[in-house]
Amino acid sequence: MTDPTRRRALRGAAGLAVTAGAFTAVSPSRASAADHHHGAPTPAPSPAPFDFDEVYRGRRIQGRPSGGGHHHGAGYAVFVDGVELHVMRNADGTWISVVSHYDPVPNPRAAARAAVEELQGAPLVPFN
Amino acid sequence: MTVRKNQANLTADEKRRLVAALIELKRTGRYDSFVTTHNAFILGDTDTGERVGHRSPSFLPWHRRFLLEFERALQSVDASVALPYWDWSADRTTRAALWGPDFLGGTGRSVDGRVTDGPFAASTGNWPISVRVDTRTYLRRSLGVSGRQLPTPAEVESVLAMSTYDMAPWNSASDGFRNHLEGWRGVNLHNRVHVWVGGQMATGVSPNDPVFWLHHAYVDKLWAEWQRRHPASGYLPLAGTPDVVDRGETMKPWNDSTPADLLDHTRHYTFDTA
Fold this sequence. Notes:
Chain A is of the alpha+beta class. In chain A, 30% of the residues lie in helices and 25% in strands. The N and C termini of chain A lie far apart (30 Å).
């Protein structure tokens, strides 16, 4: 479950920009290399969410900026056991994924966790 | 003329014919082409980019056309078949006849969500899930397990009362009838029903569950009801809107009809009740 304080902090875009570094520090991540992909031509509507890399219910979930335009503007990639999960950011900053498409959650990690719950152990099929 | 009936009022013979036509479309591969098309638009429609099938004003005419195509496919198998609708504000429990073994079958078992009764249960061999986002090839549902309730008649009423069809920014953040019916904002009608059903219905490949068509046939009926209540309101936007289908612009993937062409459902079908 997302810590309520963190969730509150994530709600404000301004808060996001300030706290993104802190999240990287508290949740160890190998995303520093991925951060260098930030030359993306598409400007993000708001700052990129924090990276994550954890094991949730026995599945490895990871999230990081993708930098490319092939993720339909999300600019952010989420993986479950190394297979990319298609995610999308809504205009209000909430997120959905292709396995939980009609039920927005606050951030990409919550989308990854919702996907793990929905999958009940099943592997994802790559979407392209 | 096609008459779309409330699923609760179908005769045993009407249910049998609809189920048989669905299974025949599945057998020939035509059914799965509809699943593929829907998922392509789910993945492609974004709030900040081009958006046609979802999270945009054309959500309603796009699905009207999509259902028309599907209904015509069914009728090519059995000309007597029409798409029924599921009024989920009335038939709102797992005990509804909709989920009976003679029609769509019930919820999934708890261990893996697998539907184990009805004509679409994997054990029949008639309903393989081929267009999928994970490796599971069986139809799944978890009716009501999300903890949320289906929308109430009062909630439907509150959305039908909204007199403006849609509003800038013409996406999931919009105020107005379309987005409240779609459910990204407010009491949440259409989206919540997908979540309530669970299984494939909660995913981008939601047409894998035949209830998709009955759900959207009712969403479509609510659009018709809204039009009757607000005769002075019409589809918006009218023109010149980037990434959004204006009233007179053609819609992908058909590229031959516009929202304006689809406003009057009576050219194609009527409903059993006004």
